[in-house]
Inverse folding.
């Protein structure tokens, strides 16, 4: 029986189908009385048509409805509408354990907290005399808030006929095996988790659930099914007789967990682990995480106090008392990972609570707008914090109950347990903040000093530092020391030499320079370590907590931290009690040749720091930039057919933004420091000397963008000492030419590209408050003839070869396109279309030419995140041991 959306069963309205289960069809539905969403499970026809079995099901459902535990999906009721009998269940969003195992083995540090919750759910049910009988990965789900939920608890028994002997042994064995229908995957899926006595048709008790629990744990750690076969008979034969090889378990599996698995997978129920409570005790004990000796290939020794701290972390309990306890000797580090594969985590935006048990980070939505998400360490999943749309640079209150952040020019705060956000103060262009135990918040600004404000609100921000004129541009990334009166911050500048780490005080006293040539946000371990990132390495400088003065040279803590993003923001955070979180990886990328469906045709370059790129007019060469280090960026021309690169710019310089001349003989590019760029041109064969083009009058920086296909114009944006950028044209066919304004407004205009007929320009402007793509004619009245092309933000527009379509990159890195009809008098754009995810590395979010269409319009070249590299978040508890 298939139900269509809108079908009513009593006061339940079907919303959509969720698939088929062992009992029949499963649907998402709305409870119109209580206003909540539920899962409805229609019973199989053979159950609904049998009065005796239906009565038994009703009795069993009443017992199951009495189960009330965080790790068991709740059964709300059992009802009948006409000839249709159905269960009303808690709707659990998220993926199943079966879905997760398909992606591979789960690391031990992630698996143990998960199975601890499963054991707790089994124990709670077993204590009430309820046995699952059909425990398998498909019946275990992870809810959005990180909790594990066991589905269909006890329904296997409810499905069997009501008879003194428990019914047909085959039916008792598994509802899916004999009643579930017809799909081979469903049949084998259940048979693979049946206990041996269950497969033989004998009576079962809670020990059958223990066997299935062990099979699930094995598959989680190994990443593949323990018992498999082409047919049900083959699978059952494997359950009864096949060797159980525990030697294939990863070498990191602790002995305690190894012994637990062996006892769960004992074919003799008399010697098998007898109770889920025993499994819970083993998984919650400190030695569950200690790989002391020779189990597998690796060996590890961990001090008991450190293990206790990690267990506290995994359980979500404050761990400060463990980490700060005196130790007679240095303790080794213990680390575990948090997978973020299912969320688009923004680089550089994370913060640990003071006690190190909660991690907040930014996740970018499909519309390119970010929100805060919270992860309690020790849970399996993260949850979104409402009221944080557009958030940036989060930081915690000292008590770990609230998170402050910046959005829409405001400083706000939100409680981690809900309740919405509330405004503290105006904070335009804020960069980084810190919150003292005295209720004082400091924040940096993109073009100004450090400001002070009351965390409770009610006062305007007060500047407490002074930016050194002609040397520094901004003061950012403040972080309090333990005395709550002094703070470190970064004095930002337009040159490396101008970047400084300074020590400031709340009373506004002159600040002291501690370090120079540093470009990084800062972290403080109050016991005397200043953390920052240099060249992708997280390093620690010792300092005197009493004076704030540095007392020694730096020591590397972590190598290969993910690349610095906007405003030198590296992804790391340290808690008050010394727990460290950071995102691993690098800023390396691949340069790939793609078809218009997103399929990779070739990899042109791998694992380099690529920048702006462009096809030559004939499509045989590609010009792009590569940055071997933070001090050097080079322009190269790559011959696609020969696979040969030619260097265009000079080594040791910072060059960018390569653009081809119309005939393909010349490459125009920028060189110089940020804020003082100049335009040069040089033969595309790399020979000769680069020629400097004249600057626009009074401009402090000019960035080359494009050359028209008719060879008449260069297009660039120019800055005049402010953040506003205007678009300028330079005539190539005129001697003694000057740059002339094409579009000069109060907004920021950039990312411009000529149409193939050289009569139109597609460009990006933030006049609406976010980057959008527009098109306007090269000559004539711009204001009346410009049209917006993108709908929800866009960057890097490129015309197709015949000028009938504009491609661009959405704010969430999707390749978009819009058809355009460019007549003499007007522009008629179509509806934006999504093609595929460009997978542009986040640190290139503001690089405008991360892709380019081939001259024939049939393919494109793009910069994508490197195929190698780990982007997981890593948490370490004893990183300070490495400083000794």
């Amino acid at each position: 029986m298939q139900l269509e959306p809108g079908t009513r069963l009593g006061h339940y309205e079907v919303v959509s189908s969720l698939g088929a289960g062992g009992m029949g069809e499963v649907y998402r539905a709305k409870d119109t009385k209580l206003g909540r969403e539920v899962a409805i499970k229609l019973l199989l026809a053979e159950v609904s048509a049998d009065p005796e079995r239906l009565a038994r099901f009703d009795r069993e459902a009443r017992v199951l409805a009495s189960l009330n535990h965080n790790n068991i999906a709740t059964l709300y009721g059992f009802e009948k509408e006409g000839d249709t009998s159905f269960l009303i269940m808690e709707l659990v969003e998220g993926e199943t354990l079966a879905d997760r195992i398909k992606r591979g083995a789960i690391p031990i540090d992630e698996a143990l907290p998960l199975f601890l919750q499963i054991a707790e759910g089994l124990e709670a049910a077993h204590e009430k005399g309820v046995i699952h009988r059909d425990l398998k990965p498909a019946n275990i789900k992870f809810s959005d808030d990180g909790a594990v939920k066991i589905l269909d608890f006890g329904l296997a028994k409810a499905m069997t006929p009501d008879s003194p002997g428990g019914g047909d042994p085959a039916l008792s064995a598994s509802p899916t095996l004999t009643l579930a229908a017809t799909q081979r995957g469903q049949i084998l899926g259940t048979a693979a988790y049946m206990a041996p006595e269950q497969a033989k048709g004998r009576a079962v008790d809670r020990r059958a659930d223990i066997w299935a629990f062990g099979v699930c744990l094995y598959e989680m750690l190994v990443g593949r099914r323990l018992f498999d076969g082409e047919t049900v008979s083959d699978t059952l034969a494997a359950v009864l007789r096949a060797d159980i090889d525990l030697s294939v378990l990863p070498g990191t599996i602790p002995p305690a967990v190894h012994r637990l698995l062996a006892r769960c997978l004992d074919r003799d129920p008399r010697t098998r682990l007898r109770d889920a409570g025993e499994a819970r005790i083993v998984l919650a004990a400190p030695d569950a995480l200690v790989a002391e000796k020779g189990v597998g290939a690796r060996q590890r020794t961990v001090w008991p106090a450190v293990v206790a701290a990690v267990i506290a972390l995994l359980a979500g309990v404050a761990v400060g008392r463990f980490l700060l306890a005196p130790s007679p000797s240095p303790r080794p580090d213990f680390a575990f990972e948090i997978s973020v594969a299912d969320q688009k985590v923004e680089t550089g935006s994370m913060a640990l609570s003071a006690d190190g048990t909660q991690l907040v980070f930014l996740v970018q939505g499909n519309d390119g707008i970010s929100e805060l998400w919270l992860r309690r360490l020790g849970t399996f999943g993260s949850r979104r914090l409402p009221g944080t749309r557009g958030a940036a640079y989060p930081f915690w209150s000292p008590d770990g109950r609230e998170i402050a952040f910046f959005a829409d020019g405001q400083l706000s705060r939100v409680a981690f347990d809900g309740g919405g956000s509330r405004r503290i103060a105006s904070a335009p262009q804020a960069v980084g903040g810190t919150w003292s135990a005295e209720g004082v918040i400091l924040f940096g600004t993109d073009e100004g000093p450090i400001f002070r404000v009351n965390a409770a609100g009610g006062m305007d921000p007060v500047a407490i530092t002074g930016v050194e004129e002609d040397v520094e541009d901004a003061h950012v990334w403040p972080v309090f020391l333990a005395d709550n009166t002094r703070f470190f911050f970064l004095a930002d500048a337009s040159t490396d030499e101008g970047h400084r780490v300074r020590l400031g005080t709340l009373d506004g006293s002159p600040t002291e320079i501690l370090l120079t040539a540093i470009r990084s946000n800062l972290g403080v371990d109050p016991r005397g370590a200043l953390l920052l990132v240099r060249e992708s390495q997280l390093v620690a400088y010792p300092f005197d907590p009493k004076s704030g003065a540095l007392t020694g040279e730096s020591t590397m803590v972590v190598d290969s931290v993910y690349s610095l993003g906007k405003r030198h923001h590296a992804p790391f955070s340290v808690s008050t009690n010394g727990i460290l979180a950071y995102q691993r990886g690098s800023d390396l990328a691949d340069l790939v040749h793609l078809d218009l469906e997103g399929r990779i045709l070739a990899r042109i370059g791998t694992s380099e720091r690529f920048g702006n790129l462009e096809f030559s007019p004939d499509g045989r060469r590609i010009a792009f930039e590569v940055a071997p280090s933070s001090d050097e960026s080079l322009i190269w021309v790559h011959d696609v057919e020969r696979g040969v690169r030619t260097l265009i710019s000079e080594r040791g310089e910072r060059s960018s933004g390569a653009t081809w001349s119309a005939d393909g003989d010349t490459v125009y590019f920028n060189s110089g420091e940020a804020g003082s760029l100049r335009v040069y041109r040089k033969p595309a064969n790399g020979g000769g000397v680069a020629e400097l083009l004249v600057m626009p009058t009074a401009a402090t920086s000019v960035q080359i963008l494009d050359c028209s296909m008719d060879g008449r114009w260069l297009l660039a944006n120019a800055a005049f000492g402010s953040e506003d950028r205007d678009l300028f044209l330079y005539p190539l066919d005129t001697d003694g030419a000057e740059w002339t304004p094409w579009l000069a407004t109060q907004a920021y205009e950039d990312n411009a590209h000529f149409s193939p007929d050289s009569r139109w320009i597609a460009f990006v402007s933030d006049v609406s408050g976010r980057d959008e793509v527009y098109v306007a004619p090269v000559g004539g009245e711009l204001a009346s003839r410009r049209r917006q092309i993108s709908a929800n933000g866009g960057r890097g527009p490129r015309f197709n070869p015949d000028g009938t379509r504009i491609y661009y990159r959405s704010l969430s890195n999707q390749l978009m396109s819009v058809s355009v009809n460019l007549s003499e008098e007007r522009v008629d754009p179509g509806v934006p279309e999504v093609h595929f995810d460009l997978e542009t590395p986040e640190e290139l979010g503001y690089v405008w030419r991360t892709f380019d269409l081939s001259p024939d319009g049939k393919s494109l070249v793009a910069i994508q995140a490197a195929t190698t590299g780990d982007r997981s978040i890593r948490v370490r508890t004893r990183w300070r041991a490495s400083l000794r």
Observations:
- The first helix runs from residue 45 to 48.
- The CA atoms of residues 53 and 163 lie 9 Å apart.
